[in-house]
# Entry
Amino acid sequence: MSKPIIGIIDYGAGNCASVKRLISKLGYRSCFVNKYDDFDNLDVLVIPGVGAFSSAMETLTKMKLVKPIIDFANTGKPLVGVCLGMQLLADSSEELGFTKGLGLIPGEVKAISSIGWHIGWNTLYCNRKCSITSNSNREDFYFNHSYEFKTLKEYIIGVAGIENPIVSVVRKDNVYGMQFHPEISQISGFKLMRRVLKEFAHA
Amino acid sequence: MLKKRLTGAVTIRNGLVVQSFGYNRYLPIGKPKVVVENLDRWGCDEIFIQVIDRSIKNLGPDIDLVKEISSSGILTPIMYAGGIKDEKQAAEVIRAGAERVCLDGLLHEKPNEIKKIAKRLGAQAVVGCFPLGMDDNGTVYWFNYQIKKKCLISDNILSLIKDRLISEILLIDWKNEGHDEAFDFRILEIFEKYNIPLILFGGLSSAKTLKKALDNPRVVSAVIGNKLNYKEHGIQILKNQLSSSNIRTAQYYDRSIYNYYEKN
# Structure
């Protein structure tokens, strides 16, 4: 049996290389995806991201990647969003003005009102059973964002913090998102990403 | 609740990590990649790489260095400073593998460029760097290290903070940098009325001083430089001593973890 191929959307958004490196370290084949033809034969698609929502969507639109990403998710194959990549899964964002998102998980991205910035290490609390995420309950992950994904309870798998919980892991069927950066969350991130790929790549 | 961070500083000059004393006197330490790998496996919460000769020599950011470090497979967030002159270069640094850019000269020379950087990368990726000092009259000043002069912080810069185009401020006590127990906490007053998280650097080395820094509700991170270069697992020792200050538990991972998971 051939090894699964993980595609990484390469839209110039920062952490593409770090995410690719982590995937390779975990023993999977991966490739960058930046045009329509690249979607062929992928088993899992990862959308990384560092930056502002509007710029990212603008770039994805210019590169004509929006429709292929949505089509990929609609085939039922696993799609994983990381940090900004998770926020892009939402219907829209208010960051730097209203911007339409990929609309793969219902919800809106809004400024974090409670604490302003959410930068640094915070503890993940899983509030629903999830074969991928539950083992990471109460582990610390690295976050770096000032907008948060507001979505329905049924899609929330984990939150960061207790007093002002911030949505940190979302899932709707084959679409999974992490607000933190597993690629720079040391052991915690390494273990979680391993479970993500183990479950999704062999699904 | 967000944990307070212990950040390891790596100061680079002429391609080598150096021990710096007030950005004036330097002792060589070693290769950047090796030093960063150590900080990574010792469990630093963040690594601050500052290349102090890039701006002065007008060389732009050291993209190759960031790529080299990032490609070594480190699993710790990197904050980079040195030589960034515009939005394009800031984006290149992030693309090369840094998580955040730390800007000093650009804040004063081209505040408009900061707006562009924040728009492109998100303000969470933008850290404002302020080498500060206090003069004999008790006035806090910004030290422009390129021309080695004391300057005032302009309203343009303060409006960048008000407009939330900068997510955190790195306050460097430049005079006391490289000296034990010397951080001058009076310099914090300059940003007192701004609700922005602070990172402190310069003369913070013992658990006692670090605790004083981290117990300040506005301080989110303390940066440690020279001390970490002379003690194995220095971060873990400090973390154990600071366990009451909402610090992430000390972690250590052997880089052979990669091999372990590949086999299992």
About this structure: The first strand of chain B starts at residue 5 and ends at 13. DSSP finds nine helices and twelve strands in chain B. Chain B touches chain A through 48 residues (CB under 8 Å).
